[in-house]
Amino acid sequence: MSPLRAAMPRPTPVDAQGARDEAPESVRTRALDRAPVVHYACKYAPVELLAGYGAVCEPVTYEADSFEEADRLAHPNLCGFGKSLISYALRDDVHALVLTSCCDVMRRVYDVLEAERCLDFLFLVDLPHLTGPAERRRLEAELRRLASAWEGFTGASFDVGRALASFEPPVARQDARVTLLGAHGPDSLLEAAAEAFDVPVENLTCTGGRRVVSPPARLGRVPRQRPCHEACDAQVPGPDPMDAFVQWYAGALLDQVPCLRMADVERRSEQIGTAGQRGIVYHTMKFCDYYGFEYLSVSADSPVPMLKVETDGTRQSAGQLSTRLKAFDETLVGMTDQMRFSAGDGPVYVMGVDSGSTSTDAVVVDGEGTVVASVILPTGSKATESARKAIEQVLEKAGISRDQVTLAVATGYGRDSIPDMDTSITEITCHARGAHALAPEAMTIVDIGGQDSKVIKLDRDGGVVNFVMNDKCAAGTGRFLEMMARTMELPLDEFCRQGLEWKKDVKISSMCTVFAESEVVSLVADDTPVPDIIHGLDRSVASKIRSLAKRVKAEPPYLMTGGVANNEGVVAAIGEALGAPVTTSEDSQLCGALGAALLGLEALD
After folding, report:
1. pTM of this prediction?
2. How far apart are CA 373 and CA 450, in angstroms?
3. What separation, in Å, do the N-terminal and C-terminal C-alpha atoms of the chain show?
4. DSSP state of 85
5. How far apart are CA 66 and CA 420, in angstroms?
6. What pairs with residue 83 in β-bridges?
Protein backbone atom coordinates (compact mmCIF):
# COMPACT_ATOMS: atom_id res chain seq x y z
CA MET A 1 0.00 0.00 0.00
CA SER A 2 1.59 3.26 -1.10
CA PRO A 3 2.25 5.83 1.65
CA LEU A 4 1.02 8.60 -0.61
CA ARG A 5 -2.33 9.83 -1.65
CA ALA A 6 -2.33 13.33 -3.06
CA ALA A 7 -5.23 15.25 -4.60
CA MET A 8 -7.67 12.61 -3.43
CA PRO A 9 -10.96 14.37 -2.63
CA ARG A 10 -13.49 13.46 -0.02
CA PRO A 11 -16.45 11.58 -1.48
CA THR A 12 -19.10 14.07 -2.55
CA PRO A 13 -22.87 13.64 -2.77
CA VAL A 14 -24.22 11.80 -5.80
CA ASP A 15 -27.43 13.02 -7.48
CA ALA A 16 -30.14 10.89 -9.04
CA GLN A 17 -28.40 10.78 -12.41
CA GLY A 18 -25.17 9.60 -10.79
CA ALA A 19 -23.22 12.82 -11.52
CA ARG A 20 -21.11 14.29 -8.72
CA ASP A 21 -22.14 17.69 -7.39
CA GLU A 22 -18.51 18.85 -7.41
CA ALA A 23 -15.46 17.80 -9.34
CA PRO A 24 -12.32 16.67 -7.49
CA GLU A 25 -10.45 19.77 -8.66
CA SER A 26 -13.01 22.10 -7.10
CA VAL A 27 -12.72 20.29 -3.78
CA ARG A 28 -8.96 20.72 -3.82
CA THR A 29 -9.20 24.38 -4.88
CA ARG A 30 -11.64 25.17 -2.07
CA ALA A 31 -9.28 23.61 0.48
CA LEU A 32 -6.38 25.68 -0.82
CA ASP A 33 -8.03 29.10 -1.18
CA ARG A 34 -5.76 30.27 1.61
CA ALA A 35 -2.33 29.12 2.78
CA PRO A 36 -2.75 25.36 3.08
CA VAL A 37 -2.77 23.98 6.64
CA VAL A 38 -0.90 20.74 7.17
CA HIS A 39 -1.51 18.89 10.42
CA TYR A 40 1.23 16.71 11.87
CA ALA A 41 1.59 14.28 14.75
CA CYS A 42 5.31 13.81 15.41
CA LYS A 43 8.36 15.91 16.32
CA TYR A 44 10.14 14.44 13.27
CA ALA A 45 7.54 15.79 10.85
CA PRO A 46 9.31 17.97 8.21
CA VAL A 47 7.53 21.16 9.21
CA GLU A 48 10.18 23.54 7.88
CA LEU A 49 10.28 21.81 4.49
CA LEU A 50 6.54 22.30 4.06
CA ALA A 51 6.88 25.90 5.26
CA GLY A 52 9.17 26.43 2.26
CA TYR A 53 6.10 25.82 0.11
CA GLY A 54 4.04 28.34 2.06
CA ALA A 55 2.17 25.74 4.12
CA VAL A 56 1.07 26.45 7.68
CA CYS A 57 1.86 23.47 9.92
CA GLU A 58 -0.08 22.72 13.10
CA PRO A 59 0.45 19.89 15.61
CA VAL A 60 -2.52 17.69 16.44
CA THR A 61 -3.43 18.03 20.12
CA TYR A 62 -7.11 17.24 19.61
CA GLU A 63 -9.14 15.07 21.99
CA ALA A 64 -12.38 13.48 20.83
CA ASP A 65 -15.63 13.50 22.79
CA SER A 66 -15.87 9.78 22.07
CA PHE A 67 -14.08 7.12 20.06
CA GLU A 68 -17.20 5.54 18.61
CA GLU A 69 -16.16 6.14 15.00
CA ALA A 70 -12.47 5.39 15.61
CA ASP A 71 -13.35 2.12 17.34
CA ARG A 72 -15.49 1.18 14.38
CA LEU A 73 -12.66 1.79 11.93
CA ALA A 74 -9.74 0.46 14.00
CA HIS A 75 -9.05 -1.87 16.91
CA PRO A 76 -10.39 -0.74 20.34
CA ASN A 77 -6.93 -1.31 21.86
CA LEU A 78 -5.31 1.26 19.60
CA CYS A 79 -3.71 3.89 21.83
CA GLY A 80 -5.69 7.02 22.65
CA PHE A 81 -3.49 9.21 20.47
CA GLY A 82 -4.07 6.99 17.45
CA LYS A 83 -7.82 7.13 17.98
CA SER A 84 -7.64 10.90 18.41
CA LEU A 85 -5.82 11.23 15.10
CA ILE A 86 -8.46 9.18 13.31
CA SER A 87 -11.26 11.20 14.90
CA TYR A 88 -9.53 14.46 14.01
CA ALA A 89 -8.88 13.47 10.40
CA LEU A 90 -12.59 12.71 9.92
CA ARG A 91 -13.50 16.34 10.61
CA ASP A 92 -14.63 18.42 7.64
CA ASP A 93 -12.12 21.20 8.37
CA VAL A 94 -9.05 18.93 8.20
CA HIS A 95 -7.66 18.52 4.68
CA ALA A 96 -3.98 17.58 4.90
CA LEU A 97 -2.13 15.32 7.34
CA VAL A 98 1.51 14.22 7.40
CA LEU A 99 2.36 11.20 9.57
CA THR A 100 5.64 9.47 10.34
CA SER A 101 6.23 5.76 10.82
CA CYS A 102 7.50 6.36 14.36
CA CYS A 103 5.45 3.43 15.67
CA ASP A 104 3.03 0.72 14.55
CA VAL A 105 0.05 2.81 15.67
CA MET A 106 0.91 5.57 13.19
CA ARG A 107 1.14 3.00 10.41
CA ARG A 108 -2.26 1.65 11.39
CA VAL A 109 -3.74 5.16 11.51
CA TYR A 110 -2.40 5.78 8.01
CA ASP A 111 -3.96 2.56 6.70
CA VAL A 112 -7.35 3.45 8.20
CA LEU A 113 -7.34 6.99 6.83
CA GLU A 114 -6.18 5.91 3.40
CA ALA A 115 -8.99 3.38 3.23
CA GLU A 116 -11.53 6.00 4.33
CA ARG A 117 -10.42 8.52 1.67
CA CYS A 118 -11.35 11.28 4.10
CA LEU A 119 -8.44 13.66 3.43
CA ASP A 120 -7.33 15.67 0.41
CA PHE A 121 -3.67 14.99 1.17
CA LEU A 122 -2.26 12.18 3.29
CA PHE A 123 1.41 11.23 3.49
CA LEU A 124 3.41 8.82 5.62
CA VAL A 125 7.11 9.63 6.05
CA ASP A 126 9.09 6.41 6.49
CA LEU A 127 11.20 7.48 9.47
CA PRO A 128 14.56 5.76 10.13
CA HIS A 129 15.05 4.75 13.76
CA LEU A 130 18.84 5.13 13.55
CA THR A 131 20.83 8.29 12.82
CA GLY A 132 23.83 7.08 10.81
CA PRO A 133 24.88 8.18 7.29
CA ALA A 134 22.75 5.54 5.57
CA GLU A 135 19.66 6.53 7.57
CA ARG A 136 20.22 10.19 6.75
CA ARG A 137 20.35 9.42 3.05
CA ARG A 138 17.19 7.38 3.42
CA LEU A 139 15.38 10.26 5.12
CA GLU A 140 16.65 12.64 2.41
CA ALA A 141 14.91 10.46 -0.16
CA GLU A 142 11.70 10.51 1.91
CA LEU A 143 11.81 14.30 2.15
CA ARG A 144 12.25 14.62 -1.61
CA ARG A 145 9.35 12.23 -2.13
CA LEU A 146 7.16 14.36 0.15
CA ALA A 147 8.28 17.53 -1.65
CA SER A 148 7.39 16.03 -5.01
CA ALA A 149 3.97 14.92 -3.76
CA TRP A 150 3.22 18.32 -2.26
CA GLU A 151 4.30 20.13 -5.43
CA GLY A 152 2.04 17.89 -7.47
CA PHE A 153 -0.87 18.50 -5.11
CA THR A 154 -0.56 22.29 -4.71
CA GLY A 155 1.47 23.40 -7.70
CA ALA A 156 3.65 25.42 -5.29
CA SER A 157 7.40 25.93 -5.63
CA PHE A 158 9.96 25.58 -2.87
CA ASP A 159 11.39 28.83 -1.49
CA VAL A 160 14.47 28.23 0.64
CA GLY A 161 14.08 31.67 2.22
CA ARG A 162 10.64 30.80 3.58
CA ALA A 163 11.91 27.47 4.85
CA LEU A 164 14.85 29.06 6.67
CA ALA A 165 12.64 31.78 8.15
CA SER A 166 10.36 29.17 9.72
CA PHE A 167 13.02 27.79 12.08
CA GLU A 168 12.72 28.62 15.77
CA PRO A 169 16.11 28.74 17.53
CA PRO A 170 16.30 25.86 20.05
CA VAL A 171 17.48 27.97 22.98
CA ALA A 172 18.00 25.95 26.17
CA ARG A 173 15.75 27.29 28.91
CA GLN A 174 17.06 28.15 32.35
CA ASP A 175 14.03 29.94 33.79
CA ALA A 176 11.96 28.49 36.61
CA ARG A 177 9.52 26.11 34.96
CA VAL A 178 7.74 22.75 34.98
CA THR A 179 8.55 20.33 32.15
CA LEU A 180 6.12 17.99 30.43
CA LEU A 181 7.82 14.79 29.32
CA GLY A 182 6.70 11.46 27.90
CA ALA A 183 3.99 10.66 25.38
CA HIS A 184 2.04 13.10 23.22
CA GLY A 185 0.56 16.03 25.18
CA PRO A 186 -3.17 16.43 24.41
CA ASP A 187 -5.20 19.61 24.85
CA SER A 188 -6.53 18.72 28.32
CA LEU A 189 -3.01 18.18 29.66
CA LEU A 190 -1.61 21.37 28.13
CA GLU A 191 -4.53 23.47 29.34
CA ALA A 192 -4.61 21.97 32.82
CA ALA A 193 -0.85 22.39 33.23
CA ALA A 194 -0.94 26.02 32.13
CA GLU A 195 -3.69 26.71 34.67
CA ALA A 196 -2.26 24.65 37.54
CA PHE A 197 1.30 25.91 37.78
CA ASP A 198 2.51 29.32 38.86
CA VAL A 199 5.57 29.01 36.61
CA PRO A 200 5.76 28.51 32.83
CA VAL A 201 5.26 25.02 31.42
CA GLU A 202 7.75 23.58 28.92
CA ASN A 203 6.32 20.97 26.53
CA LEU A 204 8.95 18.32 25.72
CA THR A 205 6.53 15.47 25.04
CA CYS A 206 7.05 13.36 21.93
CA THR A 207 4.94 15.75 19.85
CA GLY A 208 5.81 19.01 21.60
CA GLY A 209 9.57 18.64 21.93
CA ARG A 210 10.61 19.80 18.46
CA ARG A 211 14.12 21.18 18.85
CA VAL A 212 15.67 21.35 15.37
CA VAL A 213 18.99 23.18 15.24
CA SER A 214 19.20 26.47 13.38
CA PRO A 215 20.27 26.14 9.74
CA PRO A 216 23.76 27.22 8.66
CA ALA A 217 24.09 30.56 6.90
CA ARG A 218 25.39 28.92 3.74
CA LEU A 219 21.93 27.55 2.94
CA GLY A 220 20.68 31.08 2.45
CA ARG A 221 23.45 31.88 -0.02
CA VAL A 222 23.08 28.96 -2.44
CA PRO A 223 23.31 30.43 -6.01
CA ARG A 224 20.85 29.20 -8.58
CA GLN A 225 23.22 29.52 -11.52
CA ARG A 226 26.78 30.55 -12.34
CA PRO A 227 28.79 31.46 -15.45
CA CYS A 228 30.73 28.57 -16.96
CA HIS A 229 33.79 30.79 -17.61
CA GLU A 230 34.76 34.42 -17.11
CA ALA A 231 34.85 35.03 -20.87
CA CYS A 232 31.64 33.10 -21.59
CA ASP A 233 28.11 34.39 -21.28
CA ALA A 234 26.58 30.91 -21.15
CA GLN A 235 24.96 29.92 -17.89
CA VAL A 236 25.03 26.48 -16.28
CA PRO A 237 22.81 25.31 -13.41
CA GLY A 238 24.18 25.92 -9.94
CA PRO A 239 23.44 23.90 -6.82
CA ASP A 240 19.73 23.37 -6.32
CA PRO A 241 18.57 25.14 -3.11
CA MET A 242 16.17 22.26 -2.42
CA ASP A 243 18.94 19.66 -2.65
CA ALA A 244 21.27 21.61 -0.39
CA PHE A 245 18.49 22.20 2.12
CA VAL A 246 17.32 18.59 2.21
CA GLN A 247 20.85 17.21 2.56
CA TRP A 248 21.35 19.27 5.69
CA TYR A 249 17.76 19.07 6.97
CA ALA A 250 17.52 15.27 7.11
CA GLY A 251 20.40 15.14 9.59
CA ALA A 252 19.00 18.05 11.61
CA LEU A 253 15.66 16.26 12.06
CA LEU A 254 17.35 13.04 13.19
CA ASP A 255 19.72 14.89 15.56
CA GLN A 256 16.89 16.04 17.86
CA VAL A 257 16.73 14.61 21.36
CA PRO A 258 15.23 11.25 20.41
CA CYS A 259 11.72 10.10 21.06
CA LEU A 260 11.44 6.76 22.81
CA ARG A 261 10.81 4.92 19.54
CA MET A 262 14.31 5.63 18.25
CA ALA A 263 17.01 2.98 18.63
CA ASP A 264 19.42 5.10 20.70
CA VAL A 265 17.62 7.01 23.46
CA GLU A 266 20.56 7.81 25.72
CA ARG A 267 20.28 11.56 25.09
CA ARG A 268 16.79 11.65 26.61
CA SER A 269 18.45 12.00 30.02
CA GLU A 270 19.46 15.53 28.93
CA GLN A 271 15.86 16.64 29.57
CA ILE A 272 15.88 15.81 33.28
CA GLY A 273 17.47 17.94 36.00
CA THR A 274 18.27 20.94 33.82
CA ALA A 275 18.81 24.44 35.23
CA GLY A 276 15.60 26.07 36.48
CA GLN A 277 13.52 22.89 36.28
CA ARG A 278 11.18 22.88 39.29
CA GLY A 279 9.44 19.62 38.52
CA ILE A 280 8.49 17.15 35.79
CA VAL A 281 5.04 15.96 34.76
CA TYR A 282 5.55 12.65 32.99
CA HIS A 283 2.66 11.75 30.69
CA THR A 284 1.76 8.29 29.47
CA MET A 285 -0.97 7.33 27.02
CA LYS A 286 -3.40 4.49 27.57
CA PHE A 287 -2.35 1.34 25.66
CA CYS A 288 1.16 2.72 25.00
CA ASP A 289 3.72 0.91 27.15
CA TYR A 290 6.92 2.56 25.91
CA TYR A 291 6.74 5.69 28.02
CA GLY A 292 5.44 3.82 31.06
CA PHE A 293 8.64 1.77 31.05
CA GLU A 294 10.79 4.89 30.80
CA TYR A 295 8.94 6.52 33.69
CA LEU A 296 9.72 3.56 35.95
CA SER A 297 13.38 3.91 35.05
CA VAL A 298 13.86 7.68 35.35
CA SER A 299 11.58 8.30 38.34
CA ALA A 300 13.70 6.10 40.59
CA ASP A 301 16.59 8.58 40.72
CA SER A 302 15.19 11.81 39.26
CA PRO A 303 16.93 14.88 40.77
CA VAL A 304 13.66 16.85 40.57
CA PRO A 305 10.13 15.98 41.74
CA MET A 306 8.20 13.97 39.17
CA LEU A 307 4.50 13.27 38.75
CA LYS A 308 3.08 10.63 36.44
CA VAL A 309 -0.28 11.22 34.74
CA GLU A 310 -2.09 9.13 32.14
CA THR A 311 -4.74 10.16 29.64
CA ASP A 312 -6.73 8.16 27.10
CA GLY A 313 -7.14 10.66 24.27
CA THR A 314 -10.47 12.07 25.49
CA ARG A 315 -11.35 14.88 27.89
CA GLN A 316 -13.27 12.61 30.25
CA SER A 317 -10.64 12.80 33.00
CA ALA A 318 -9.97 16.53 32.75
CA GLY A 319 -11.22 17.16 36.30
CA GLN A 320 -9.01 14.50 37.88
CA LEU A 321 -6.08 15.68 35.77
CA SER A 322 -6.51 19.22 37.04
CA THR A 323 -6.54 17.98 40.65
CA ARG A 324 -3.34 16.00 40.20
CA LEU A 325 -1.47 18.86 38.57
CA LYS A 326 -2.62 21.47 41.09
CA ALA A 327 -1.65 19.17 43.96
CA PHE A 328 1.78 18.74 42.40
CA ASP A 329 2.11 22.51 42.12
CA GLU A 330 1.24 22.83 45.80
CA THR A 331 4.00 20.39 46.73
CA LEU A 332 6.53 22.32 44.65
CA VAL A 333 6.01 25.76 46.17
CA GLY A 334 4.43 25.15 49.58
CA MET A 335 0.75 25.92 50.07
CA THR A 336 1.05 28.65 52.70
CA ASP A 337 3.65 30.39 50.54
CA GLN A 338 1.05 30.74 47.80
CA MET A 339 -1.76 32.38 49.76
CA ARG A 340 -1.90 35.02 52.47
CA PHE A 341 -5.03 36.47 54.07
CA SER A 342 -5.73 39.04 56.74
CA ALA A 343 -6.84 37.73 60.13
CA GLY A 344 -8.92 40.83 60.84
CA ASP A 345 -9.56 42.21 64.34
CA GLY A 346 -12.10 39.84 65.90
CA PRO A 347 -11.94 36.23 67.06
CA VAL A 348 -10.51 33.87 64.43
CA TYR A 349 -12.61 31.06 63.00
CA VAL A 350 -11.53 29.16 59.89
CA MET A 351 -13.87 26.78 58.08
CA GLY A 352 -12.77 23.90 55.87
CA VAL A 353 -15.25 22.14 53.55
CA ASP A 354 -14.37 18.87 51.78
CA SER A 355 -16.78 18.13 48.92
CA GLY A 356 -16.25 14.47 48.01
CA SER A 357 -18.16 12.07 45.81
CA THR A 358 -19.74 10.21 48.73
CA SER A 359 -19.72 12.63 51.66
CA THR A 360 -19.37 16.35 52.25
CA ASP A 361 -17.45 17.19 55.43
CA ALA A 362 -17.06 20.52 57.20
CA VAL A 363 -14.86 21.60 60.10
CA VAL A 364 -14.48 24.88 61.98
CA VAL A 365 -11.30 25.59 63.97
CA ASP A 366 -10.53 28.54 66.22
CA GLY A 367 -7.40 30.67 66.24
CA GLU A 368 -5.48 27.99 68.15
CA GLY A 369 -6.33 25.26 65.66
CA THR A 370 -8.79 23.54 67.99
CA VAL A 371 -11.79 21.94 66.34
CA VAL A 372 -14.91 23.84 67.36
CA ALA A 373 -17.44 21.91 65.30
CA SER A 374 -17.64 19.32 62.52
CA VAL A 375 -20.28 17.60 60.39
CA ILE A 376 -20.35 14.76 57.84
CA LEU A 377 -23.23 14.62 55.35
CA PRO A 378 -23.90 12.43 52.30
CA THR A 379 -23.12 14.32 49.09
CA GLY A 380 -26.13 12.95 47.24
CA SER A 381 -26.91 14.07 43.69
CA LYS A 382 -26.07 17.77 44.13
CA ALA A 383 -22.64 18.68 45.48
CA THR A 384 -23.53 22.37 45.81
CA GLU A 385 -26.63 21.67 47.88
CA SER A 386 -24.87 19.22 50.20
CA ALA A 387 -22.08 21.77 50.73
CA ARG A 388 -24.64 24.44 51.60
CA LYS A 389 -26.25 22.14 54.17
CA ALA A 390 -22.89 21.14 55.65
CA ILE A 391 -21.86 24.79 56.04
CA GLU A 392 -25.19 25.69 57.58
CA GLN A 393 -25.01 22.85 60.11
CA VAL A 394 -21.36 23.27 61.08
CA LEU A 395 -21.87 26.99 61.71
CA GLU A 396 -24.93 26.23 63.82
CA LYS A 397 -22.94 23.69 65.88
CA ALA A 398 -20.10 26.18 66.29
CA GLY A 399 -22.53 28.86 67.42
CA ILE A 400 -21.30 31.44 64.89
CA SER A 401 -22.64 33.14 61.78
CA ARG A 402 -21.11 33.11 58.32
CA ASP A 403 -19.97 36.72 58.83
CA GLN A 404 -17.86 35.59 61.79
CA VAL A 405 -15.84 33.15 59.68
CA THR A 406 -12.41 34.67 59.09
CA LEU A 407 -11.56 32.40 56.16
CA ALA A 408 -13.40 29.63 54.30
CA VAL A 409 -11.35 27.02 52.42
CA ALA A 410 -12.77 24.45 50.00
CA THR A 411 -11.23 21.12 49.02
CA GLY A 412 -12.26 17.85 47.38
CA TYR A 413 -13.43 17.11 43.85
CA GLY A 414 -16.35 19.51 44.22
CA ARG A 415 -14.30 22.36 45.66
CA ASP A 416 -14.86 24.65 42.68
CA SER A 417 -18.63 24.19 42.93
CA ILE A 418 -18.96 25.48 46.49
CA PRO A 419 -20.14 29.11 46.44
CA ASP A 420 -18.79 31.95 48.58
CA MET A 421 -15.52 30.28 49.59
CA ASP A 422 -12.38 32.40 49.95
CA THR A 423 -9.96 29.95 48.39
CA SER A 424 -9.52 26.30 47.47
CA ILE A 425 -6.76 23.71 47.97
CA THR A 426 -6.52 20.21 46.52
CA GLU A 427 -7.42 17.26 48.68
CA ILE A 428 -3.86 15.92 48.41
CA THR A 429 -2.38 18.84 50.32
CA CYS A 430 -5.33 19.04 52.73
CA HIS A 431 -5.18 15.34 53.60
CA ALA A 432 -1.46 15.65 54.26
CA ARG A 433 -1.98 18.58 56.65
CA GLY A 434 -4.97 16.99 58.35
CA ALA A 435 -3.17 13.66 58.77
CA HIS A 436 -0.16 15.37 60.30
CA ALA A 437 -2.48 16.99 62.85
CA LEU A 438 -4.16 13.67 63.68
CA ALA A 439 -0.96 11.58 63.75
CA PRO A 440 2.25 13.68 63.63
CA GLU A 441 4.39 10.54 63.44
CA ALA A 442 2.75 9.30 60.20
CA MET A 443 5.02 9.14 57.15
CA THR A 444 2.51 7.72 54.67
CA ILE A 445 -1.20 8.35 54.24
CA VAL A 446 -3.52 5.79 52.68
CA ASP A 447 -6.71 7.57 51.69
CA ILE A 448 -9.60 5.62 50.21
CA GLY A 449 -12.61 7.68 49.28
CA GLY A 450 -15.75 7.08 47.31
CA GLN A 451 -14.31 7.41 43.82
CA ASP A 452 -10.54 7.26 44.19
CA SER A 453 -7.71 6.00 46.34
CA LYS A 454 -4.46 7.78 47.12
CA VAL A 455 -1.14 7.08 48.77
CA ILE A 456 0.67 10.19 49.97
CA LYS A 457 4.25 10.11 51.27
CA LEU A 458 5.09 12.82 53.82
CA ASP A 459 8.20 14.42 55.22
CA ARG A 460 8.77 14.88 58.95
CA ASP A 461 6.90 18.19 58.92
CA GLY A 462 3.81 16.78 57.18
CA GLY A 463 4.68 18.16 53.76
CA VAL A 464 3.90 16.15 50.63
CA VAL A 465 6.99 14.39 49.24
CA ASN A 466 5.17 12.35 46.60
CA PHE A 467 1.71 11.02 45.89
CA VAL A 468 -0.10 8.71 43.54
CA MET A 469 -3.80 8.38 42.78
CA ASN A 470 -6.10 5.77 41.33
CA ASP A 471 -8.96 7.74 39.84
CA LYS A 472 -9.41 5.96 36.52
CA CYS A 473 -11.75 3.23 37.72
CA ALA A 474 -13.64 2.09 40.82
CA ALA A 475 -11.07 -0.60 41.68
CA GLY A 476 -9.78 -0.20 45.21
CA THR A 477 -12.25 2.55 46.16
CA GLY A 478 -15.23 2.92 48.45
CA ARG A 479 -17.50 2.66 45.43
CA PHE A 480 -16.04 -0.77 44.68
CA LEU A 481 -16.95 -2.01 48.17
CA GLU A 482 -20.41 -0.45 47.98
CA MET A 483 -21.11 -2.24 44.70
CA MET A 484 -19.92 -5.56 46.12
CA ALA A 485 -22.14 -5.11 49.18
CA ARG A 486 -25.07 -4.39 46.89
CA THR A 487 -24.27 -7.50 44.84
CA MET A 488 -24.34 -9.59 48.04
CA GLU A 489 -27.54 -7.82 49.19
CA LEU A 490 -25.96 -6.61 52.44
CA PRO A 491 -26.14 -3.21 54.13
CA LEU A 492 -22.68 -1.64 54.07
CA ASP A 493 -22.19 -1.77 57.85
CA GLU A 494 -23.16 -5.45 57.90
CA PHE A 495 -20.84 -6.09 54.96
CA CYS A 496 -17.94 -4.54 56.91
CA ARG A 497 -18.77 -6.50 60.09
CA GLN A 498 -19.03 -9.87 58.39
CA GLY A 499 -15.68 -9.34 56.73
CA LEU A 500 -14.04 -9.71 60.15
CA GLU A 501 -15.46 -13.22 60.64
CA TRP A 502 -13.64 -14.95 57.78
CA LYS A 503 -12.18 -18.42 58.20
CA LYS A 504 -10.57 -19.23 54.85
CA ASP A 505 -8.68 -17.19 52.27
CA VAL A 506 -10.59 -16.58 49.05
CA LYS A 507 -8.80 -14.93 46.16
CA ILE A 508 -10.63 -12.40 44.01
CA SER A 509 -8.37 -12.39 40.97
CA SER A 510 -9.80 -9.40 39.07
CA MET A 511 -9.41 -5.78 40.15
CA CYS A 512 -12.01 -4.67 37.63
CA THR A 513 -15.30 -3.96 39.40
CA VAL A 514 -17.38 -5.61 36.67
CA PHE A 515 -15.30 -8.79 36.55
CA ALA A 516 -14.97 -8.91 40.34
CA GLU A 517 -18.76 -8.80 40.60
CA SER A 518 -18.95 -11.81 38.29
CA GLU A 519 -16.46 -13.65 40.51
CA VAL A 520 -18.51 -12.84 43.60
CA VAL A 521 -21.69 -14.14 41.96
CA SER A 522 -19.88 -17.38 41.08
CA LEU A 523 -18.55 -17.76 44.62
CA VAL A 524 -22.01 -17.23 46.08
CA ALA A 525 -23.36 -19.86 43.69
CA ASP A 526 -20.70 -22.27 45.00
CA ASP A 527 -21.92 -21.68 48.59
CA THR A 528 -18.65 -19.99 49.59
CA PRO A 529 -19.16 -18.47 53.07
CA VAL A 530 -20.03 -14.78 52.81
CA PRO A 531 -17.34 -13.63 55.32
CA ASP A 532 -14.67 -15.40 53.26
CA ILE A 533 -15.84 -13.67 50.08
CA ILE A 534 -15.81 -10.29 51.81
CA HIS A 535 -12.31 -10.92 53.13
CA GLY A 536 -11.21 -11.74 49.59
CA LEU A 537 -12.62 -8.40 48.44
CA ASP A 538 -10.81 -6.61 51.29
CA ARG A 539 -7.57 -8.24 50.18
CA SER A 540 -8.13 -7.16 46.57
CA VAL A 541 -8.44 -3.56 47.75
CA ALA A 542 -5.26 -3.99 49.80
CA SER A 543 -3.45 -5.37 46.74
CA LYS A 544 -4.29 -2.21 44.81
CA ILE A 545 -3.04 -0.02 47.66
CA ARG A 546 0.20 -2.00 47.87
CA SER A 547 0.84 -1.32 44.17
CA LEU A 548 0.28 2.40 44.70
CA ALA A 549 2.48 2.41 47.80
CA LYS A 550 5.41 0.92 45.89
CA ARG A 551 5.26 3.75 43.37
CA VAL A 552 5.87 6.41 46.03
CA LYS A 553 8.30 4.29 48.08
CA ALA A 554 5.92 4.41 51.04
CA GLU A 555 7.25 3.77 54.51
CA PRO A 556 5.66 3.36 57.95
CA PRO A 557 4.12 4.61 60.16
CA TYR A 558 0.92 4.47 58.08
CA LEU A 559 -2.29 6.39 58.71
CA MET A 560 -5.48 5.58 56.85
CA THR A 561 -8.01 8.32 56.13
CA GLY A 562 -11.26 8.61 54.20
CA GLY A 563 -14.57 6.86 54.77
CA VAL A 564 -13.17 3.36 54.15
CA ALA A 565 -10.95 3.82 57.21
CA ASN A 566 -14.08 2.82 59.18
CA ASN A 567 -13.93 -0.66 57.59
CA GLU A 568 -11.75 -2.65 59.98
CA GLY A 569 -11.42 -5.57 57.57
CA VAL A 570 -9.92 -3.37 54.84
CA VAL A 571 -7.61 -1.64 57.33
CA ALA A 572 -6.30 -4.99 58.55
CA ALA A 573 -5.85 -6.32 55.00
CA ILE A 574 -3.89 -3.22 53.99
CA GLY A 575 -1.64 -3.56 57.02
CA GLU A 576 -0.94 -7.16 56.07
CA ALA A 577 -0.21 -6.19 52.45
CA LEU A 578 2.14 -3.37 53.49
CA GLY A 579 3.88 -5.42 56.17
CA ALA A 580 3.26 -2.86 58.91
CA PRO A 581 0.33 -1.75 61.09
CA VAL A 582 -2.05 0.83 59.65
CA THR A 583 -3.57 3.15 62.21
CA THR A 584 -6.78 5.14 61.97
CA SER A 585 -8.33 8.03 63.87
CA GLU A 586 -11.89 8.61 64.94
CA ASP A 587 -11.67 11.74 62.79
CA SER A 588 -10.18 10.01 59.74
CA GLN A 589 -13.14 10.90 57.56
CA LEU A 590 -12.75 14.57 58.50
CA CYS A 591 -9.09 14.63 57.52
CA GLY A 592 -9.52 16.65 54.32
CA ALA A 593 -11.79 19.29 55.84
CA LEU A 594 -9.56 19.54 58.90
CA GLY A 595 -6.47 20.00 56.74
CA ALA A 596 -8.21 22.71 54.71
CA ALA A 597 -9.12 24.60 57.89
CA LEU A 598 -5.60 24.30 59.36
CA LEU A 599 -3.94 25.40 56.11
CA GLY A 600 -6.28 28.37 56.03
CA LEU A 601 -5.34 29.23 59.62
CA GLU A 602 -1.64 29.09 58.76
CA ALA A 603 -2.23 31.44 55.81
CA LEU A 604 -3.55 34.24 58.04
CA ASP A 605 -1.27 37.20 58.68
Report:
1. 0.76
2. 23
3. 69
4. H
5. 35
6. none
